[in-house]
Amino acid sequence: MDFKHAAILGSYISKDYAEELFRLLANYQDISASEAASRLNLHIKTVQDFLEAMAQLDILDKKEVFEKKRPYFRYALKTRNIKMILDLDELFGGQKQISSAGFRIREKSNAGVRFSTSRDGQSISHVAMWTGKGREQKERRINLSRPQGKFMFHLPFPSAAYMEVTEIMEKAGVEETHRSEIMDIVNVLIEYGVIEKE
Amino acid sequence: MLIFQVLMIIYAFQKKMKWRSREILELAAQNVERESDSFTRRPMHIGKSNHGIEDLYSFSKFISKNLIAIPVKEKERLIFIINMPWEKLISFNKQYWKYSYVAFDLEGDVSVNITQEDYFMYRDQLAFDQLCHGMGNLFISFLDQYRKGYELLIIDQFNALKLNIITEG
Q1: Chain A interface includes B122 (CB < 8 A)
Q2: Residue A157: which of B79, B109, B128 has the nearest Cβ?
Q3: A31 Cβ partners below 8 Å, 6+ apart?
Q4: HSE on the CB side for A167, CA within 13 Å?
Q5: pLDDT at B112 over 90
């Protein structure tokens, strides 16, 4: 299951009427939104949204029926088990792809950012920058992990030559196992215009 | 009183009453190229120096005695503050990290911080990374010369600049 579908399932499953609705679905061959709503004393729109979402996730079977009145949908449970498995490997894969591109970076000139050094003076503890304009301007402060701080301390200055991420990591003594968190902060700071790519 | 005044004048001409901040900034900027918009507010790691702790501590005494910089001992490093105002020198909360400094850590790492105020003292906009390297390497070379017993050579480098004896800093 991807994050998008997991988020939908999670948000509906967490509703306090979710269990009662599933109990109804388990007991009925099929059920319409209005029948379920009247049975549980809920608003029809609430039940309809729930059933639609479950049908979208392939948990319910949705069938259009025509009786004397206008057509409507009846829902039936398709499965007795709902499994939510999130594959986090995909996220690791994404980071590796970025880092393997081997892009060269340095600090952007006039970034308008404030760096605070750690107590030992050998790393950056946090980066503060301003976002928004005029009255909407707010300070955005990012606290760095120790490997990120060491990496930022060795980031080439705006007037210095670009360096590869791997090179900076080696210079800063940051181990390869921290690459994903390094790439995370690099990407964020590129987005905020603190770091520039060659 | 007259003797005191004469002594003061002699000391002033010998540059024994004046901090060498401006001269350090001048020496650090030698051979640095011009480049605009290169300033950044963070310290720079310069490299390694193969100094011993004892050397470093005796060097710090030489540095303070000759009014080159103010040494501050920290848990894991020794910092040489370059341009601290007089009023801050006597205050309890010195907040020395707000000033320009060269720091030698006990593992040999050397880092440099140059403040915007000091950077703007230069007439030209200089490549900031080269300037930091210049400052760090200057102190590394001072330390090397000191270890070899060439203390006078260090003072000569300052005097050779022939800066005004009355100007501040």
Answers
A1: no
A2: B128
A3: A24, A25, A74, A75, A76
A4: 11
A5: yes
Q: Which of A116, A151, A157, A169 to mutate to test the interface with B (most CBs of B within 10 A)?
A: A157
- A61: pLDDT confidence band, cut at 50, 70 and 90? very high
Which A residues 146-165 touch B at CB under 8 Å?
152-154, 156-160
Answer yes or no: are the C-beta atoms of B72 and B96 closer than 8 Å.
yes
For residue B123, name the pLDDT band (cuts at 50, 70, 90). confident
A158: tokens are: 């705006």
Q: Which residue has the tokens 């039940």?
A: A47
- What count of residues does chain A have? 198
Q: Do B77 and A120 touch (CB under 8 A)?
A: yes
Q: For residue B31, is pLDDT > 90?
A: no
pTM of the model: 0.71
Instruction: Specify the pLDDT at position B86.
Output: 65
Please judge whether A110 and B37 are an interchain contact, meaning their C-beta atoms are less than 8 angstroms apart: yes
Q: Determine the residue type at A16.
A: D
Q: Does the model's ipTM exceed the 0.85 cut?
A: no
Q: Is the CB of residue A96 less than 8 Å from the CB of residue A176? A: no
Q: How far is CA B6 from CA A126, A171, A181, B10, B67, in A?
A: 53, 54, 65, 6, 21
